[in-house]
Amino acid sequence: MRLLYIAAHAPYVNDSAQELLDTLLVAASFGAEVAVLFQDDGIWQLLPGQDGSVLGRRSLGAQLDALPLFEVDRLYVDGRSMSERGLSETDLLLPVTTLDGPGLAALLASHDQVIRL
What we know:
Layout: E1 2-7, H1 16-29, E2 33-38, H2 60-65, E3 74-78, H3 79-84, E4 97-99, H4 101-109, E5 113-116
Parallel strand pairs: 1-2, 1-5, 2-3, 3-4
């Protein structure tokens, strides 16, 4: 099964970012083919140097670094979201593929299920 998770929330505003990460890691550990699209404020999850401990939370950056261990290596960012926030791929913690318009539509269409948290 091909699953696409869309990370659309800032890292520590609520539990959405952590819940998405936990959910996709479980799916990957059970053999699902998992991809992640970072979109809207979810782009902020990819910035290095995060410290969730000041908010009493686990730091997402360290957990995102573990994605390749679960064979989650198809990471995408919405080019519009990134440009609206003044970021480029070199600002991000992990290597990603930037997609716009038709590329995003093709990504969504190529998965059996799309989960947005």
